[in-house]
Inverse folding.
């Protein structure tokens, strides 16, 4: 209370002055036509300027959300695109395909840990069993294939990327239908090797590699890279092809994980027919 | 006249009437713009006792200003200007305090102070009043020349008229 008195003793006059001035300003703006017009005009100018500034800041802080949303939307579009392609591309069938159940469903996720310096590189993404992720699902990004999941927890999932020496992905030379195993020798994060393409295959440097679709993991036709160099080793019947990867692993941020709705069905057929026993 | 409460009330009403009936009609200007008006009502605040508390001066200034506003049909403009002058009066008085200091019973009028002191005191206070008045009246910084011309001319004319009023009514007989 004493403090309050002291405060009033010091600043009471100033406060009274400011209060009276504000009251006068209120009267002026309220009851004088010309001043009110000026006031309204000026306040409109100021408020619109402030609103503008605020909008641009707010948009800046919402960028992350916006990117996530766009990514999500992209995943949906990719799913639909693949579905449409599978059903055929005529207009009549397009309508049916939109209601049909898709085979490959794309979902978005963020990379929360990214390692490229080792021979046994791993990524971790922020989606897991709770989102429906399982071991052995494809991980892609907009530029192409990244790898497949190898261990999942409830919230997170570890990914075995192409640039891990233990990785092997079935890849096809686009347009020629010859396919082989894409592996990595552990040297260059931008370069992988394709083995198992027979000697009589026809292709040139610069041809594109896509996923073959001969596995239950990757959807067919996803980009991998371009052929940089190739030769046939002494005494071999297969090409040894060096591939430039499309994906820039050190700068990865956001990925898609792909759910194959028919995976269980295909796997059960493979088990019934003892596929791969020999 | 201004040393007692009753005297101040009389002065209040007298200045109000004088301003409304006489000085409201006095204005100078050209090209249809009024560049100088004469305000004598600040004399009420100017002649309050030197040692009076500023809160009281402020409230009286507001009261006087709002009464003038009813005459001029401009709610808030004169009241704001006069409260501003009432607020800064203390600082002006401190600034022009004579070397000997003020006597307890001193009034800021020609009867107690010399002409030079009164002239400076009136000029500065009327300048503040006029500045504030035109700030609230024009309500814009766009018309720069007009603003300063009005402020300076109004200060000058009001100052001149107030000194005459001083000589007529408050001079030591």
């Amino acid at each position: 209370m004493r403090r309050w008195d002291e405060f009033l003793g010091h600043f009471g006059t100033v406060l009274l002055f400011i209060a009276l001035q504000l009251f006068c300003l209120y009267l002026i703006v309220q009851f004088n036509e010309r001043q009110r017009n000026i006031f309204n005009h000026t306040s409109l100018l100021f408020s619109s300027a402030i609103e503008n500034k605020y909008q641009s800041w707010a948009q800046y802080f919402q960028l992350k959300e916006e990117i996530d949303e766009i990514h999500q939307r992209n995943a949906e579009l990719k799913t639909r695109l693949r579905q449409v392609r599978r059903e055929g591309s005529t207009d009549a069938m397009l309508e049916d395909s939109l209601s049909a159940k898709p085979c490959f469903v794309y979902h978005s996720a963020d990379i929360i840990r990214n390692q490229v310096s080792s021979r046994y590189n791993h990524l971790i993404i922020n989606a897991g069993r709770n989102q429906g992720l399982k071991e052995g699902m494809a991980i892609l990004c907009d530029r192409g294939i990244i790898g497949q999941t190898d261990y999942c927890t409830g919230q997170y999932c570890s990914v075995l990327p192409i640039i891990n020496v233990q990785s092997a992905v079935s890849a096809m030379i686009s347009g020629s239908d010859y396919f082989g195993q894409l592996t990595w020798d552990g040297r260059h994060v931008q370069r992988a090797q394709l083995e198992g393409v027979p000697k009589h295959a026809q292709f040139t440097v610069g041809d594109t590699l896509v996923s073959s679709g001969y596995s239950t993991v990757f959807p067919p036709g996803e980009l991998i890279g371009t052929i940089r160099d190739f030769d046939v080793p002494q005494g071999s019947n297969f090409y040894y092809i060096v591939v430039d990867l499309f994906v820039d692993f050190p700068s990865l941020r956001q990925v898609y994980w792909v759910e194959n709705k028919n995976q269980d069905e295909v796997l059960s057929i493979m088990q019934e027919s003892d596929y791969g026993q020999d | 006249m201004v040393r007692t409460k009753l005297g101040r009330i009389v002065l209040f009403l007298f200045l109000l009437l004088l301003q409304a009936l006489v000085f409201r009609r006095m204005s100078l200007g050209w090209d249809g713009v009024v560049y100088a008006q004469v305000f004598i009502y600040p004399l009420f605040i100017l002649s309050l006792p030197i040692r009076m508390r500023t809160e009281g001066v402020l409230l009286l200034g507001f009261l006087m200003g709002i009464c003038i506003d009813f005459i001029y049909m401009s709610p808030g403009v004169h009241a704001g200007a006069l409260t501003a002058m009432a607020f800064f009066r203390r600082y002006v008085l401190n600034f022009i305090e004579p070397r000997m200091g003020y006597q307890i019973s001193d009034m800021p009028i020609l009867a107690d102070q010399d002409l030079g002191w009164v002239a400076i005191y009136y000029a500065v206070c009327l300048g503040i009043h006029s500045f504030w008045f035109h700030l609230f009246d024009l309500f814009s910084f766009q018309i720069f020349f007009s603003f300063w011309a009005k402020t300076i001319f109004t200060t000058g004319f009001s100052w001149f008229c107030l000194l005459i009023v001083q000589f007529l009514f408050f001079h030591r007989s």
